Automatic annotation (TrEMBL):
One of its GO terms (molecular function) is heme oxygenase (decyclizing) activity. This is Heme oxygenase. It comes from Maribacter dokdonensis. It holds the Pfam family Heme_oxygenase. InterPro entries: Haem_Oase-like, Haem_Oase-like_multi-hlx. One of its GO terms (biological process) is heme oxidation. It comes from the Bacteria.
Amino acid sequence: MSFLTTLKNNTKVAHIRVEKVMVKEIKSISCLEHYARLLERLFLFYNPLECKVHQSLNHSILPDIDKRKHTNWILEDLDVLGYTINTSNYYKTQHITSISYAVGVLYVMEGSTMGGQIISKMVKKQLETDINTHYFDSYRDKTMEMWLSFKNSITQYETQLDHEEVFNGANETFSALKKWLELTSILESISE
């Protein structure tokens, strides 16, 4: 069994759990403000994590690492909506303990671009409008190409990776995102 297949299998349960929470979040969007608040919550989770991953990985592992930044798209979407992020509530991210762990984290972030295309359609359907979904459509028509490029880079580097650390990085990121979405959803409903 290939490393990437093992990674997918080892993270499947955590992936499904966060996916269920995300679908519930999307289905609860009833106005542009709800969409903006979801984007804000995703930014507050992913931005510090994305920064740490990019500090940990370099071009020898991923030649196109500079193209793999997604949180700026959230800012663009929020700017179009006229929404300003409250940056006092950043998620306190897990520690990136190794290159292998960072690869696991990036596996989650890059994999989300595949699901992002589906989420984009769900958001537009939910809001009944053709709203900007640049974040969820990060790579647009190059999504599959970028995903395959990511997988190829990881496959070429896999003998130098601690596989358990990659699994931990991915599983802990999925779990942390699920907890973050659940917690911030509860806090938002209390403040309304």
